[in-house]
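Budget justification note: compute hours in this period were largely spent on complex prediction jobs such as the one shown. Inputs:
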Amino acid sequence: MTFINYASKEINCKIVYYGPGLGGKTTNLQYIYNKTSPDSKGKMISLATEADRTLFFDFLPLDLGSIRGFTTRFHLYTVPGQVFYDASRKLILKGVDGVVFVADSQEERMEANIESIRNLEANLKEHGYDLPTIPYALQFNKRDLPGALAVDQMYRVLNYKREPTFEAVATTGIGVFDTLKSVAKQILIELRKR
Amino acid sequence: MGSADFILYEEEYASLEEALRRLRQEANAKAVFLIDKNGQQIAAAGEIEQFDATSLASLTAGNVAATDGLAKLIGEREFSVLFHEGQQDHIHISIVAKRAILVVIFDERSSLGLVRLRVKRASVDLERIFETMLQKGERGDSPGGPASPFSEITDEDIDALFSE
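Corresponding output:
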């Protein structure tokens, strides 16, 4: 649900990074945070456990500049990936405008990827959204690991609706901004349709 | 998408700000914020520059969402008021018009009782303004122009945003 403020001339959109635990959602946000100039970002908030696992969410407000006189602001959130945090994941999807799915490329995480996409589909539905229509980008993260599955194999299993798909190494930033741009663009194009 | 966009026009924005200013003054509060349940700030009044409003909005919405989840777990519809007591500053959080969160930050110059009383009164005003907003949204009113300036967005506009 985009928030358009005509008084302060701002558009606010919400992007949620979804995916299985330890897949690199928080790392995506951290890289974006580190590479963005101070005047176009707010504070990054991480509600994490002592072991640095996301407990509730990470939050990063980004200011992308202005479009038709409106300041365009994206609020990036991650969800906790661990299966048992489903109640929290659901809460964070509330009001979402676009989703990035961060898949873990390691063969042994494929089941977890599949389960997480199913979970995303179900949780979106609970909020009245539909994965087939919502702005959505897919990221194959951890491409640098030796156990990474072939891209076409992952694509066949994980690509849901021919959404834009990116190879990434979030720790070094490969593919991180491309993924973000893709989903942000889709959100703005969606806005144009309305 | 699942829910309609939330559109705020200048007239209602001014009314909301006025209501918040009044509440801040009458409750003797440091600052008052009105936040969308999805974590975005709608309007604010008072000593707002000393707070990180964006973080405050996001954390408050998370807090309210988690508390809502707790309420449902025990069979309650919602907990409509949350109060956090600090050593110097305190936060009073309440739900307004089902979709917004009213946050009042106050210190020893005020009291919980006074804040509660004034929040109750202000909530009535705020609900009325939200009602007007909703009606406008349903009628598709938009003063001074086409329904949305974004229908004119070009691919170049969008690309320009990303050309750092």
